[in-house]
TrEMBL record:
Pfam assignment, any one: Aminotran_3
Main function: Catalyzes the transfer of the alpha-amino group from S-adenosyl-L-methionine (SAM) to 7-keto-8-aminopelargonic acid (KAPA) to form 7,8-diaminopelargonic acid (DAPA). It is the only aminotransferase known to utilize SAM as an amino donor.
Taxonomic source organism: Nesterenkonia sphaerica
Modified residues (N6-(pyridoxal phosphate)lysine): 307
Main subcellular location of this protein, as a coarse class: cytoplasm
SUPFAM superfamilies: PLP-dependent transferases
Stated name of the protein: Adenosylmethionine-8-amino-7-oxononanoate aminotransferase
Length: 482
């Protein structure tokens, strides 16, 4: 064993091999075989740009069109977030949350309650987005049991949805068109609603969709819910935009309909805002696009947030619930305990950075430092709107402009933009390796999947960044597919 280790790990041997060579066959990457390796190595990151090293050892600077899977909304090496991390490191980086608390966790929970839909009052701090949904599902099951209905053990979810990679969350992902079909016989068997009709945000700010298709969808959905109601605990959905399910937007009215169905049948409505929260769709939370049938804001029973919560610095997520949900749990067995408790729950380092990130979004303490002008990453000069709103509105306008020429390509089926999300949908599967290489050669980083070349760039992306990003996508797609 010692001899093997000396062969693999000696500094002299490492110096003779590139980072990509050392990675290949050693480290698993997402949804890939262990010998797949990586395409590029990151050598530096600053603002909205990455410095990549290719297989030949050459480096190049690229615009990050992915915000590191939608999390690095403030870009990289942001001085406010860097300072928050250093300041907390000088105090302590971690302590158990069982029986103890600390300022960063309480401050973060206070901010989340203040900025989420009115009525959400209690916060569970989780390790990741998948775990926050896992906890939400467990909470719903415990609440139904506490209400005297332990037979309610299934969930309704939308076709096309994605909610995580853990076993309970895989069960509420699309069972056929998702990424977990291999485990279909092992995960809990849930019930699925048809995918809602597509919708898009028009240039005038109004949602466009087929009214007749929505009416038919509602009738079918209500019929499914009524037939299964006695065994259902809750409804789970990504509001307005399904992310990994194809960057698929649907009419906000769907969320209001699901709220009404949940109320009609005693179900808990769980909204998964892990990808859509913190401004990405043009509302601080995507559910804010929706209203109930009587014109009221839609308030979920349980809300999950993650990804951008720490600005992409550390893994952290949160589940919030209403007082009614917490009270129902409190009346049940186990002394009202929510039966989950991660080792790194409420990690103070992550919580401190999350507080600073939320302040940057809202212009709160420390958040006004970069606040001048109208570039993404800067605040409204008149001070009338929070920084995130100016940033995302600017992103939306520029993405529409920069991606519009891709409509002229014969291989492109659709181009759509919602907030800080831009999608170029092809008429067939993307040649991921070839398109990625062509786009990187033109100064941008994207991670296509299925038939989509999509972007969710950092909010701090400049006009030049977005011009580079748009041109790289259009030229790269044309080179490979047109």
């Amino acid at each position: 064993m010692d001899r093997q280790r000396s062969v693999v790990d000696t500094p002299a041997r490492q110096e003779r091999r590139t980072l990509l060579q050392r990675d290949a066959g050693l480290v698993w990457h997402p949804y890939a075989p262990v010998d797949a390796g990586a395409h590029y190595a990151v050598r530096a990151a600053e603002a909205a740009r990455l410095t990549l090293e290719g297989p030949d050892g050459a480096t190049c600077e690229v615009v990050d069109g992915m915000s590191s899977w939608w999390s690095a909304i403030h870009g990289y090496r942001h001085p406010v977030l860097d300072a928050a991390a250093r300041d907390q490191l000088d105090i302590f980086s971690h302590v158990m949350f069982g029986g103890l608390t600390h300022e960063p966790a309480v401050a973060l929970a206070e901010r989340l309650v203040a900025m989420t839909p009115v009525g959400l009052r209690h916060v569970f701090l989780a390790d990741s987005g998948s775990i926050s949904v896992e906890v939400a599902l467990k909470l719903a099951l415990q609440v139904q049991a506490a209400r005297g209905e332990p037979q309610r053990q299934r969930f309704l979810a939308l076709r096309g949805g994605y909610h995580g990679d853990t076993f309970a969350t895989m069960g509420v992902c699309d069972p056929e068109d998702g990424m977990h079909a291999e485990f279909s016989g092992l995960v809990p068997r849930q019930a699925f609603l048809p995918r809602p009709p597509a919708g898009r945000l028009g240039a005038n700010g109004a949602w466009e969709y087929d009214d007749g298709a929505l009416t038919a969808w509602e009738a079918q959905t209500r019929n499914v819910a009524e037939g299964l109601a006695p065994e259902l605990a809750g409804i789970v959905c990504e509001p307005v935009l399904q992310g990994a399910g194809g960057m698929y937007a649907y009419p906000p009215a769907v969320v209001g309909i699901l709220r009404q169905i949940a109320d009609d049948h005693g179900l808990l409505l769980i909204l998964d805002e892990i990808a859509t929260g913190f401004g990405r769709t043009g509302r601080f939370f995507a559910s804010e696009w929706a209203e109930t049938t009587d014109g009221q804001a839609v308030v979920p029973d349980i809300l999950c947030v993650g990804k951008a919560l720490t600005g992409g610095y550390l893994t952290l997520a949160a589940m919030l619930c209403t007082a009614a949900v917490a009270d129902a749990l409190g009346a049940g067995p186990n002394g009202g305990a929510l039966l989950h408790g991660p080792t790194f729950m409420g990690n103070p380092l992550a919580c401190s950075i999350a507080v600073a990130s939320l302040d940057l979004l809202t212009g709160g303490p420390g958040g006004s430092l970069p606040a001048v002008g109208a570039e993404p990453g800067q605040a409204d000069p008149a001070g009338a709107r929070p920084p995130w709103q100016v940033q995302v509105e600017t992103l939306q306008a520029r993405l529409r402009t920069e991606l519009a020429p891709s409509r002229e390509l014969s291989c492109v089926r659709d181009v759509r933009v919602l907030g800080g999300v831009g999608v170029v949908q092809l008429d067939g599967p993307v040649d991921v390796a070839a398109v990625t290489r062509e786009v990187v050669d033109r100064g941008a980083w994207v991670r296509p999947f299925r038939d989509l070349v999509y972007v969710m760039p950092p909010y701090v992306s400049t006009a030049e960044d977005l011009r580079t990003l748009g041109a790289a996508i259009i030229e790269g797609v044309a080179r490979v597919h047109d």
